């Protein structure tokens, strides 16, 4: 009962504060150093209320905002690509998916297009790329035209194109040939729990 009271009080505090992320802790969880992640998000607009997202897994203190970004992107797998799409209800295009995942997972606002996301990111070499970094491609013409979220081990999650569902692909074959590079998102590379 005490844990439930602490949990309820923590959620109310999160909602009132409109904070981007917090850990709801119980005495037992603090002792075990294992936490159930619960996140509150607020868009800071007068007509928008906070939304609480419960992650159905236990997280350690080592969980980062980028882990949450990846979780939000992978949760969309199987949903169909939609040009201009930027929500789970309408579907996503590639940059809509990355924009959504970073806003929901890290509270970071990305620009809307793949080219603008590339311009806003800090470029990093492939050997430094890690889970949660953006991966950019030129799939048509000379501009950056596609973006995904790197998962590590040469894999990335993305919304490929019309007629295809959000999926995980490997950086080989077609994607290796179209690869431009990797970008790190400022403000998203920190622990989710303080």
Automatic annotation (TrEMBL):
The keyword Protease applies. GO terms for biological process: proteolysis. Residues 63-186 form the NlpC/P60 domain. Residues 1-17 form the signal peptide. Pfam families: NLPC_P60 (PF00877). Keywords: Hydrolase, Protease, Signal, Thiol protease. InterPro entries: NLP_P60_dom, Papain-like_cys_pep_sf, Peptidase_C40. The keyword Protease applies. GO terms for molecular function: cysteine-type peptidase activity. Belongs to the peptidase C40 family. This is C40 family peptidase.
